[in-house]
UniProtKB/TrEMBL annotation:
InterPro entries: CheY-like_superfamily (IPR011006), OmpR/PhoB-type_DNA-bd (IPR001867), Sig_transdc_resp-reg_C-effctor (IPR016032), Sig_transdc_resp-reg_receiver (IPR001789), WalR-like (IPR039420), WH-like_DNA-bd_sf (IPR036388). The lineage of its organism: Bacteria, Bacillati, Actinomycetota, Actinomycetes, Micrococcales. The keyword Cell cycle does not apply. Residues 129-226 bind DNA. GO terms for molecular function: phosphorelay response regulator activity; transcription cis-regulatory region binding. GO terms for biological process: regulation of DNA-templated transcription. Residues 129-226 form the OmpR/PhoB-type domain. Keywords: DNA-binding, Phosphoprotein, Transcription, Transcription regulation, Two-component regulatory system. This is Two-component system, OmpR family, response regulator. PROSITE patterns: OMPR_PHOB, RESPONSE_REGULATORY. It comes from Demequina mangrovi. GO terms for cellular component: cytosol; protein-DNA complex. The modification 4-aspartylphosphate is found at residue 54. Pfam families: Response_reg, Trans_reg_C. Residues 5-119 form the Response regulatory domain.
């Protein structure tokens, strides 16, 4: 079995270093990020198998990061780390999509045990949303493979994430802002052409033959559907 990749997101440098060292010693491939925005970027680029995520970070905190990931369709398992001890915080963390909750201070062996337990649970959990189909277009999220009429389509990571987000919202018109948030992880329109550019890339590959599936709704956004 290949090494599972763990992403550690925590703004405390010393703690983050210790967490990474403990997980590497346990045999994991570990990367890290020092804040929420960097964490979102790392998820998009590195596709970790599990995220160890601090709740109390300046700027984009752990709960906000989780909401953005879940709203975008990302289901990467998340273990929260927090100094908070209220039951309300724990309930909120698990309700918004967290998989486990570890209160600081904690033993590093306990963290490793929690990571192993969540990883096993996810590996053995059946999922009905691993494969998305619209007409003769199919996206297999386990194999990371896209086909149309049985022919494989090669997509870049960003193109793949964009297509997956469209397929997860089949029939729904998504605005540029919703796509920026769901695929790129930010809501500010820093680059007004990025969505249009990538829609064009994906459309040329996916809609090379009939029926056309990706549609522009003028003045509103984009949708994937069978006309």
């Amino acid at each position: 079995m290949p090494e599972r990749r763990i992403l550690v997101v925590d703004d405390e440098d010393n703690l983050r270093t210790m967490l990474c060292a403990a997980l590497r010693y346990a045999g994991y491939d570990v990367t890290d990020a020092a804040d929420g925005q960097a964490g979102l970027k790392a998820v998009r680029e590195q596709r970790p198998d599990l995220i160890v995520l601090d709740v109390m970070m300046p700027g984009l905190d752990g709960f906000a990061v989780t909401r953005r990931l879940r709203e975008s369709g990302d289901r990467t398992p998340i273990i929260f780390l927090t100094a908070r001890d209220s039951s309300e915080d724990k309930v909120e963390g698990l309700t918004i999509g967290g998989d486990d909750y570890l209160q600081k201070p904690f033993n590093l062996d306990e963290l490793v045990a929690r990571v192993e337990a969540v990883s096993r649970r996810v590996e053995h959990a059946p999922s009905a949303s691993d494969i998305y189909r619209v007409a003769d277009l199919e996206l297999d999220d386990v194999a990371h493979r896209v086909t149309r009429a049985g022919e494989e389509i090669q997509l870049s990571p960003t193109e793949y994430n964009l297509l997956r987000h469209l397929m997860q919202n089949t029939g729904r018109v998504l605005s540029r802002g919703q796509l920026l948030e769901g695929v790129w992880g930010y809501s500010r329109d820093d680059d007004p052409g990025v969505v249009e550019t990538y829609i064009g890339y994906v459309r040329r590959k996916v809609d090379a033959h009939e029926p056309k599936l990706i549609h522009t709704v003028r003045g509103v956004g984009y949708t994937l559907r069978v006309s």
